[in-house]
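Q: Hi! New to this. If I give you a protein sequence and the SMILES for zinc ion, can you show me the bound structure?
A: Yes, paste them in.
Q: Okay, here:
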Amino acid sequence: MDFELEELAGASCVHSGKKIFVATDADNCAKCGRAVLNKHKAEHEEKCTGAGAIKRVAHDYDELPPVEWTQKLIAMVAGGVLIASFGGGLMMASPEQPPGELAKPMPTKKLATGFGLMGLGAILSVVGYSSERRRQSEKAK
Ligand SMILES: [Zn+2]
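A: Thanks. Here is the predicted structure of the protein with zinc ion bound:
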């Protein structure tokens, strides 16, 4: 759960907007944690997307540690960037053109490979970074 449970008494029902006077008249929505009157709970939860959730605020004691640039992480990100730039270079490079022939348009296959490599490189960097980041935060707990 990454949201706060809203204090019931004194809150306004997330569904009807009516003031909640007694905590026992209401409950927290299972999806967004907002206070909702018992009689509206089922109806609200059915439609709730969790968008109105009160985000849990990071406190000093459980704040994520700064990411540690381990060799593995650097290798993954650098590898991703390298693959992406290779893909980009492939697209930039002019097609091999024997002298005397008319300029050919960029072959589709090469263009697709270039785009593919760029995408792959970007994904590798992002996935590598976020998984390593998650692993480090887990360890810190
Ligand atoms: Zn909700």
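A: The chain has two domains: 1-57, 62-140. Let me know if you'd like me to explain how to read the tokens.
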